[in-house]
């Protein structure tokens, strides 16, 4: 039986609005995560519950309020404009939000319809479950549901709801919302709540901030190691827990380019692949500024607060570089990568960028020698490989096999699955999800899913669902 304990709903009323999901006309399950359902104690849930038509006992549906910098521009009030949090379930693995994304209008919808269409719902389900399988902290997907209604975008699409699971939905933008209103009491309440929930080892505000900074350094390094481009790293899309959230127009790089951008709304490349560490640092600066008033009380002065927070913020580049070195060192089979290995890693990435080599297959191809085949300048690669062979560990193949997936959610494969689902065939989405939840162990029968797109299959832009 599901055990709800809705701690966020016990915070002051200004943190959220109580609201029930809008009724879905004819819910139909598309994808169901049976393993996760068992872990959460919701194995008996059906499409009616997942669509919000039936509220389970103990749930307390709310829409959370937050603010955020969106592509650098300040939006003083955002919030769950198309999502409702049913509540929090408690398991032996911890506390988790269950969130219905695409559940209809809320007070934060800003003239939107509050709905999602099935394409972005499937994209987030597939990608988030791959990320989890690949060892990246992430929100999870419990279910993808057709609502039985239509959603108007550039044309009418079948409506969809994603049942998302997260250790919380507390964002940098949640802190910003209250700071902008000079509601410092709310910032302190939120800090204490998030600290107890995510980083109980932190004994004060500064230690909490240190934990958030460290978690983001680890997260972004893992993104980079997969060639993942989030696409919309606004402050309202950064969870303080350190989980990947709000996949939207995300994509994975095929032919490597450090300047890769896929999001149709990122017209200036603010959130390009190579910019992600910088933008995470920028977002963390915005979070740090929220803590100045309470830190001033804790440390006895504004300058002391600013200095302490700045020192933590300035630790991010070094923390990130250390994590990046671990991630990419493992992809080269180096057991304990040192600072001098950075040049070796960067030189390979430089060759890949020069030749547009496939990101995933090049790194995975180090195992069987096929990495060379993705290069145009093979003589340069051979020179690099001689240096690499001197640095790799005796068990380097085992290290690489665990660090570099054999298959990723290729953009064109996701689009194929969505197109099939629009035509009433969910089998492609089901199969793609099944394969991607074991990304390091690709069966020969599924080998085609590891192939990069042909020229006519390439996906150059990805889109948000709103």
TrEMBL record:
Major enzyme class: transferase
UniProt GO molecular function: AMPylase activity; ATP binding; magnesium ion binding; manganese ion binding
A matching Pfam family: SelO
Cofactor: Mg(2+); Mn(2+)
Active-site residues annotated for this sequence: 236
Keyword annotations of the record: ATP-binding, Magnesium, Manganese, Metal-binding, Nucleotide-binding, Nucleotidyltransferase, Transferase
EC number: 2.7.7.-, 2.7.7.108
Annotated Mg(2+) binding sites: 237, 246
InterPro entries linked to this entry: SelO
Catalytic activity of the protein: L-tyrosyl-[protein] + ATP = O-(5'-adenylyl)-L-tyrosyl-[protein] + diphosphate; L-threonyl-[protein] + ATP = 3-O-(5'-adenylyl)-L-threonyl-[protein] + diphosphate; L-tyrosyl-[protein] + UTP = O-(5'-uridylyl)-L-tyrosyl-[protein] + diphosphate; L-seryl-[protein] + ATP = 3-O-(5'-adenylyl)-L-seryl-[protein] + diphosphate
Family, per entry: Belongs to the SELO family.
Its biological purpose: Nucleotidyltransferase involved in the post-translational modification of proteins. It can catalyze the addition of adenosine monophosphate (AMP) or uridine monophosphate (UMP) to a protein, resulting in modifications known as AMPylation and UMPylation.
Name of the featured protein: Protein nucleotidyltransferase YdiU
Organism: Celeribacter persicus
Upper classification of the organism: Bacteria, Pseudomonadati, Pseudomonadota, Alphaproteobacteria, Rhodobacterales
